[in-house]
Design goal:
Alpha-lytic protease prodomain-like, Alpha-Beta Plaits, four-stranded mixed beta sheet, 10 helices, 12% strand, Cation_efflux_TMD_sf, ion transport, transmembrane helix
């Protein structure tokens, strides 16, 4: 019986790739964090629900960018306690969960505020909406340019990039609301656009929340076919059976697997371990795998019912 514990070494890891673009994340974080405050204050003073809802979306972006920054930092930090055997990679997942709660809170606020305005004629100052909406679009475009290069080789940066893409759409919505309010004099256009932004944020929050729960629930990663993984391991020379296969995500871009490989009589255990790890790494992008080889299927394994 033997156990192989494998890490892939093909190219830079996601954490290292993110670290190379840390300055891009930091600059984008600073830009969007400052503008979030400007947009929120302007939204409150002008009475624009669209600005307030977009500011909430931008706050979620601040959290997402902050999580990406933290992830690139802690990825290379050694555990001094000896108790975090997987390191602190899950910090990104917890930060994403916080972003989900924040986004849902913003959506709920927009709906409640819109309901409160029913029967009233809200006064909305279109001037600040147009000014801040235009400035927000510029800020988001700068952040997109900063993050675009890093998004090609870092999953952390790519996630932040997609967050900013979505927020750019929100800035366009604010501009549209400002133009409609200015040309028609009807403040309800602001509420209508705010509803649209709020719905967009809520949908994204639910989608992100499902991803967070899938990671915390240790589901099979999206894009990984568990039957194909089983078949690939079973096809390794010398392997006659595969059982107790588990594949899950530690954090974005980092998949983990464990499996028991039953060997045919006379098979080379070391060769099977190396080949099995290579199959997982090269064919299924699972760079961290712990494989146990067995001369026969253990009765202890069959006795475990979960």
């Amino acid at each position: 019986m033997g156990v192989g514990h494998g890490h892939g070494h093909q190219g830079a890891s996601p954490a290292h790739a993110g670290a190379r673009h840390r300055w891009r994340l930091a600059c984008s974080f600073a830009l969007i964090a400052v503008f979030f405050v400007v947009e929120l204050v302007t939204g409150i003073l002008s009475g624009s629900l669209a600005l307030i809802s977009d500011a909430g979306h931008m706050a979620a972006d601040v959290v997402a960018l902050g999580a990406a920054l933290v992830a690139t930092k802690i990825a290379t930090r050694a555990d001094s306690t000896g108790r975090r055997t997987y390191g602190s990679y899950r910090a990104e997942v917890f930060a994403s969960g916080l972003a989900v709660l924040l986004m849902l809170g913003v959506s709920a606020y927009v709906v409640l505020e819109a309901v409160r305005r029913i029967g009233a004629e809200p006064h909305v100052d279109a001037g600040p909406m147009l000014l801040v909406g235009g400035l927000g679009l510029v800020v988001n475009l700068i952040a997109l340019l900063l993050l675009r290069a890093g998004a090609k080789d870092s999953l952390n940066v790519r996630g932040a990039y997609l967050e900013v893409v979505a927020d750019t759409a929100g800035s366009v919505g604010v501009l549209v609301a400002g133009v409609l309010v200015s040309t028609t004099g009807d403040g309800w256009w602001d509420t209508a656009v705010a509803f649209a932004i709020g719905a967009f944020v809520a949908v994204r929050a639910v989608m992100l929340g499902r991803e967070v729960l899938a990671v915390l629930g240790q589901h099979v990663p999206v894009g990984v076919d568990i039957d194909a993984v089983t078949g690939a391991l079973a096809a390794v020379p010398g392997v006659c059976d595969v059982h107790d296969l588990h594949v899950w995500t530690l954090t974005s871009g980092m998949h983990v697997a464990t499996a028991h490989l039953v060997l045919a009589e006379g098979a080379d255990a070391d060769a099977a371990l190396v080949a099995g790890q290579a199959v997982l790494r090269d064919e299924h992008a699972i760079e961290h795998a712990t494989l146990q080889v067995e001369g026969h299927r253990s009765a202890a394994c069959d006795a475990v019912t979960w």
